[in-house]
Amino acid sequence: MHWWVLRRQLHVSWLIAIFCGAIIIGIFTVQSFQIVLFGSFAYLFIGLTFSAVGMWGRYLYLIPLVIVGGLIVGVWRGSVHSNELAGTKSLMGYSVTISGKVTEDVDSSTDGQLALRLNDLVIMGRTLKGSLWVTISDSSADIKRRDRVTIFGKVGGGFGSFAGSIYQAKLVKVVRPTPGDWALRLRDWFSSGVRLAIADPAASLGIGYLVGQKRALPTDLIEALKIAGLTHIVVASGYNLTILVRLTRRLFEKISKYLAALSAAAMIFGFVSITGLSPSMTRAALVASLSLAAWYYGRKFHPLVLLPIAAAITVLVNPSYLWGDLGWQLSFAAFAGVMILAPLLQRYFFGEAKPGVVRQILGETISATLLTAPILITAFGQISNVSLIANLLVLPFVPLAMLLTFMAGIGAIIVPSLAIIVGWPATMLLNYMIWVANELSKLSWATTTWQVSGLVEAICYGLIIGLCLYLWRTTHYNLAEANIVE
């Protein structure tokens, strides 16, 4: 290789992507090898200095500096977080009274108990870092998101992104902040209007589409949606947010580009305020915001740049997402499938012809399923065989279902006496979707059970990356053309 080749300059966006990718690897390394000795701010300074020098020159031969700098920053952040979690993990095996803030909507566990995710932990006046998974036997307790609860129970081991867990905890006290969560009150007020117009379980499904609230769904329907591979359209996810952002942007674009961007940004803020910042919702909001900003300024975000930037930002805020949060992992895998593999497949099989609704949904569903399959199989030991059929039968109608559910809720609030009539179209469509999920989940071949190791998972992703490289080299498709807000 000639020396002049190494003096070629890269665009700074690619250097930032490389830096972010190195940060992710560094944080992952901390968990894998239990590295906790690099928590000093000196390491952060060294890492940023290395990376800044590499980005300033932008030459190919300076890329190792960017990588080393990103690795050091990642190891530093992971070490800091590991040390922060030590206090919470030291409680394992002890029965304690502890208080914490409920960060997401309260769910029901498989045995009918309330399941809480607690942050901002306090024990005996001492603040602890990390999240706690808690179940409470009193299923009638009035607990909402952002309430501060005090519980008593024995601390057990953590899992996923949780530093610890307490099962069958005794509820001591619930304190609701003043003035409280305005977005939650607005959601509950609107949900009551939807339930006037639409009977359950269709009402709960429609509310799930609009605001990601799935607690009210019957357990048998939740299981049917899981088997059919449709859970992603009920929980607050990037798919729901993308629909709303695209609709808002297109609605106001003809009036003013500024108004379109402002309205879409307001939609992102409002949706996140209502649903809460779960790991998958954090990713969706961040990606949508960055994509919207790029669209407004006439720029293009290459997915291979956008993906590591969004991932690095989220894991810098909370490294536990990378260490074991399945929702975070699936969210980014699905995003990579939709933004990278799907357009490559479309260009390979259909050339430059713009895909219609069915073909686009088919391509995105296949791609997202393929990218998330290794994670799901490794985590649960099974995969849905009817996911593709179910998504083809349901996904095209989700935007319409969201619109009809919204109209039903508003209509019921304005004219309660006509609620059932206003809600009839939404009821018919939502019942159809429930029927699809139930019927497909009953098939004997609906799922396949596989047991695979982490090594097999890594090999699968290696093959997928190889497939993407082959499709890209064959089609010469510019992935920067893909933008989720357009």
Tally of contiguous helical segments: 18
Tell me the total number of β-strands: 10
The quaternary structure here is single chain
- What is the terminal-to-terminal distance? 41 Å
User: Which residues form runs of ≥5 with pLDDT under 50?
Assistant: none
Radius of gyration from the alpha-carbon trace, in angstroms: 24 Å
Main sheet specs? 5 strands, mixed, barrel
Coarse shape = globular
- Identify the strand order in the major beta sheet: 1-3-5-8-6
Average of pLDDT: 83
Roughly what fraction of the amino acids lie in strands? 5-15%
SSE-based structural type: alpha+beta
- Domain count: the total is 3
Give the topology string: H per helix, E per strand. Answer: HHHHEEEEEEEEHHHHHHHHHHEHHHEH
Percent helix: 55-70%
Describe the structure.
With 486 residues, the chain is α+β, with helices and mostly antiparallel strands. It folds into three domains: 3-81; 95-179, Beta Barrel (OB fold (Dihydrolipoamide Acetyltransferase, E2P)), CATH 2.40.50; 185-481, no CATH class. It contains 18 helices and ten strands. The strands form two sheets. Strands 1-3-5-8-6 form a five-stranded mixed beta barrel. A two-stranded antiparallel ribbon has the order 9-10. Strand 2 and strand 3 form a beta hairpin. Helix 2 (12-33) packs parallel to helix 4, helix 5 (182-197) runs antiparallel to helix 6 (202-211) and helix 5 (182-197) packs across helix 9. It is globular, with a radius of gyration of 24 Å. The two termini are 41 Å apart.
